[in-house]
Every structure is written in C-alpha cells, then in structure tokens.
Design goal:
Blueprint: H1 2-17, H2 20-33, H3 43-56, H4 60-67, H5 73-83, E1 86-94, E2 99-104, E3 110-114, E4 127-134, E5 138-140, E6 145-147, H6 152-162, H7 170-185, H8 191-194
Antiparallel strand pairs: 1-2, 1-4, 2-3, 4-5, 4-6
Helix pairs in contact: 1-4, 4-5
C-alpha cells in the first residue's frame, strides 16, 4: 500500500508540469550521487531510491500536499512524515520475536522495525542507506541502497573516523552513494580503495584515477 501510494504521488506530480520538476530533480540527484540510466545493472535500486529522495528531500511530498488540499487524512500524515523522514546509514540487527533493530551508524540511535514492515528486504548484518518515517509507528520507505558485505570492513574504518555526524548527514550519505557507484562501475577495484574517508568529497565517478591515491 505504501509503495503504491508513493508511486501515485509521483504520477500526480509528473502530470502537474509534464515532468519538468522531476527531470530537474534527477539532474541534481545525478550530480550528488552519480548518474545512472535505464539498462544499468543498478538502475532499479537507484531509481527507487531517487523517487524517495524526490518526495522527501526535494520537496515533492510537500508539493503534492499543496496540490491536494482535500487529500485523505492518512495521506496528509504520510506526506508530512515524508518531508521529515530520517535518512541515514543503518545496520540491521536481529531483535526479539518478529522485530529487526536498525542501528543508525551516523547518529547513534537504534530503531525497532517489525519484520513484516521490512517486507523481507532486510537481513541481520546488512548496511544500507534509507529513510524511516513516523506514521503510526516506524516505517521504512521502499527506496534503499545496500552497501554490500565486501565493503563492510572498509566502511567500518571510515565510520570510525567520522561518526557520529552532527548536523546534516547528506554530504556523508551522498559521498557513500558515490563510492557504491564506483564499486559497481569498477568491479576490479577493491572496496578498501573506494571506501575511504578522503574520498567522501570526490564527485568524480567516471574515472578510476583516484583509486591509486594512497593505495
């Protein structure tokens, strides 16, 4: 139901201006996290994450709410929650019974999530970039990007050097998404050459020259 609602919002917003704002948002997202296109192996994961980013970070949910003043109360609550969603880097831990625990690796918090709300997408030990919204409990939005197990050792060292992150976490999260994009593009380069603190501000994902720095 949640995914279907957000997809409908995207369609509604696209119809408002023939997708002009969505295209502008995608250009911004590409600049921040790396460009992707239909046909890329990582397209589906990235486009779902982008849609959540568009609604939550780029103002899409607020714009939809403004355009639908008579929307049902549950959708109004969801739109407001999307606008204040908690994006962070989360590691999944096993909880009690049917719960999963999500450790916020940048802020230090821990959130309990019903396994049923995770939709079978999460396994203890995984680390991902995603958003939690507070609507009748904690809910995980559908757009999540995993940092695969092969990156975890280097990622842990990077996090040890920078966490906790006070204030806006976006630069760190976007930097990590660029690292994930490089990992996908340059499959012969080891994760330890990609997931490095000094690479957080590196915006270039189309060249592997940076991999030789300090290696």
């Amino acid at each position: 139901m949640l995914d279907a609602t957000l997809e409908r919002w995207i369609s509604d917003l696209t119809a408002l201006d023939d997708g002009v704002e969505l295209d502008r948002a995608r250009e911004t997202f590409h600049e921040r996290t790396g460009a992707f296109e239909v046909g890329d192996a990582w397209y589906e994961e990235r486009i779902r994450f982008f849609f959540d980013w568009y609604l939550c970070d780029f103002g899409g949910a607020r714009r939809w709410l403004d355009a639908h003043p008579d929307a049902p109360d549950d959708e109004r609550r969801l739109a407001r929650a999307c606008a204040t969603a908690a994006r962070s880097l989360y590691t999944v831990r096993a909880g009690e019974r049917d719960e999963l625990l999500l450790d916020d690796r940048l802020g230090g918090g821990r959130f309990a999530l019903a396994a049923s709300d995770a939709g079978g997408r999460l396994t203890p030990g995984e680390t991902f970039d995603g958003r939690l919204v507070a609507v009748d409990g904690i809910t995980l939005l559908g757009g999540i990007i995993f940092h695969p197990p092969g990156t975890h050792e280097a990622l842990e060292a990077l996090l040890e050097a920078i966490a906790p992150v006070d204030g806006d976490r976006t630069p760190v999260l976007d930097g990590l998404l660029r690292m994930r994009m490089r990992l996908d593009r340059f499959t012969s380069i080891r994760a330890r050459h990609i997931y490095r603190r000094e690479a957080l501000d590196d915006a270039d994902i189309l060249s592997a020259a940076w991999a030789r720095k300090g290696s």
